[in-house]
Amino acid sequence: MIIYNESTAKFIEHVMEQRIENVLLERVKEKMNQFVSMSEIRSWTNSLPQMAKVLRAAKLKEDTHVLLEYKLPSTEKRIDFLITGEDQSGNQNAVIVELKQWQKTEVAMGDGIVKTLLGGRIRETVHPSYQSLSYKRYLENFNEALYADSSIQLSSCAYLHNYIPERNRNEEPLLHDRYTNYVEQSPLYFQFDDLELSERIKEAVVAGKGREIAKRIEEGRIRPSKRLVEAVNSLFKGNEEFILLDEQKVAYEKVLSIYNDLDHESDQKHTILIKGGPGTGKSVIGLNLMNFLLGDEATIEYITPNQSFREILRKKLIGRSGFVEIRSFFKGSASYVETPNNYYDVLVCDEAHRLKNQGHMKKKIEGENQATQIIRASRLSVFFIDDEQVISNKDIGRFDLLKEEAEKQNSIVHVVELDSQFRCSGSGNYLEWLDNLLYDRREDAVLDGDFEFEVVDSPHGLYNKVVKEKGGRLLAGYAWDWNTKLVDGELSKDVTIDEHQFAMPWNDPNRIDWAIHPEGADQIGCIHTVQGLEMEYVGVIIGKDLTYDAETMSLQVNREHFKDKGARPAKPKGTYKVDPLDQLVRNTYKTLMTRGMKGCYVYCVDEQLGERIKKLMNKNSENKL
């Protein structure tokens, strides 16, 4: 989505009349129905007049075009400034300009990482050249108008209009040798480099004719998000389709920095806990780490407690590469019961909240759990975790436990947090709204943005909308028994809703790759087979394990309708004690309802719950007016 797409002449006019902030605010409200923070408004006020000055100096034709606040597909990241036009030879060009108000930086450890003042304190962040270059590469992989073989040539740079570099450029932190590769590909322009930037832009778009180029970019078809299971083959070839954006890159480089500092002559361990909600790119970081560290000849394995997720990764890799050996890099969390101390350089554990107490049914070591074993077995252990995706009484991999287990083994603990949303069409608002629905967190959470969400009145309607129309999958809470025995050679249709004469089977337990296999379209996915996966669209059936009580105006978790006996905690004794099942059921539905990249449709067996959700949606619609 592009907030602003106007001719250069109109952009300069908006700036000169001091209306650019109001125009952008109106268009953000119109296109995204969102409010804008004061810091973002200040950045417009401070940076856009500087770009208007650059464009005036370039004396461009009126029909070059300026695009502002281009929201990268399926992320919350936005490109500050992009200009389109043709050069003297008739080549079509688009130039990304990343705008920064920075005044001072420091060299930081890690590839493409710097330190600067952000949010009132010195923080690590990505180098401006890396940031603009990553946005360029991201667009080249997602927008058909800008694919690498497109007639539109995309380039990038960064303009730090308040930044006065060191007089001796060899001493300037942003121009340190460690950043040379990125600066060469995506140049930096400082406070007094405005004329140089003007010349660069003029050379690219001097002939004008930018309207059609801008239109093609804005209307360019966005391919489905680069699914982990579809592109992982090229991962081992240095694939750029898994571009790391902002804090993803910081987390990645944090791990590599610690890895590079490991003393292999010492027994000192390091444990990195990377916290992030659904769709924050945890798996993308993990697979990038695996790819790099394998190339560095590190002994590394990628751990996924969810067997379905692991099997899909394996099959996609093996199917496209032909190398069955790749399978051995992906392991279950029960694989390290007898592994010697520091046997591996690195173990990366995805979905660590699904770790269990015992490593294997037949192999149990007193006082150990799977987290203990992973930390013991590696010099560097990396855990990706989200406490709100704990969905079973057997799940033990919460942040506090992992930290405690690491400290017991004298491992140095590092914590990294991921905030940006790369699933659910990059809509952090949807997650806030969902948290308000399930956990009653924020009264002012608004359901808006690009993510599709709808309550459907029947399970048949849900199937038609999600599976038939959009090619998605149906999922359900564990509110029905699961008969794993075949009935007349077919799966038992356990998920039944009698009032709608609806019956479908749970996903085939023998078909681990259910989520991508054609047969899966007529089966219903369980929480245990979809956690960690993503699909374009999901339809979620909310069973009677979660209902709405109109009298108390609250959600109710009903123990008698929760059928996953292995995941069900014991009922607490005492009238006023909170049932731990309450949190697990809510976590289950949050996990199910965040599997979709583009949309989530819901059917509620409890009509009152369906009406409650609709009411919240209508309330948000009223707030938008």
From TrEMBL:
It comes from the Bacteria. SUPFAM superfamilies: P-loop containing nucleoside triphosphate hydrolases (SSF52540). Residues 268-405 form the AAA+ ATPase domain. InterPro entries: AAA+_ATPase, P-loop_NTPase, SLFN_3-like_DNA/RNA_helicase. This is ATP/GTP-binding protein. It comes from Chryseomicrobium excrementi.
